[in-house]
């Protein structure tokens, strides 16, 4: 049993979430903030989506 059993579908979910969250944060509530802040939140959302996809589905 692998500790971190990742598949291509899980990776795709993480990448799609990163793209969607980057657009959402960049055009929405964090538009006036530095880009580093929006990317940091988008990366957190993508990692959360990846972990949910791996361990809960």
Characterise this structure.
- The chain has 57 residues and is mostly helical.
- 74% of the residues lie in helices and 0% in strands.
- The protein is built from two helices and no strands.
- It has helices at residues 8-27, 35-56.
- Helix 1 (8-27) packs antiparallel against helix 2 (35-56).
- The longest helix has 22 residues, at 35-56.
- The protein is elongated and about 45 Å long.
Summarize the structure.
By secondary structure, the chain is an all-alpha fold. It has helices spanning 8-27, 35-56.
Structural class: mainly alpha
Q: Pick out the low-confidence regions.
A: none
DSSP helix count? Answer: 2
**Mean pLDDT figure:** 92
Query: H/E order of the elements?
Result: HH
What is the radius of gyration computed over CA atoms, rounded to a whole number of angstroms? 13 Å
Main β-sheet, in a few words? none
- The percent range for strand residues is under 5%
Instruction: Summarize the amount of helix as a percent range.
Output: over 70%
Number of E strands: 0
> Termini separation (Å)?
16 Å
Q: What characteristic shape results from the CA principal axes?
A: elongated
What's the layout of helices and strands?
Elements: H1 8-27, H2 35-56
Helix pairs in contact: 1-2
How would you describe this structure in keywords?
single chain; 57 residues; mainly alpha
């Amino acid at each position: 049993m692998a500790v971190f059993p990742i598949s291509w579908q899980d990776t795709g979910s993480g990448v799609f979430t990163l793209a969607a969250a980057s657009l959402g944060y960049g055009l929405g509530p964090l538009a006036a903030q530095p880009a580093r802040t929006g990317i940091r939140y988008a990366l957190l959302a993508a990692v959360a989506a990846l972990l949910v996809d791996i361990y809960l589905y």
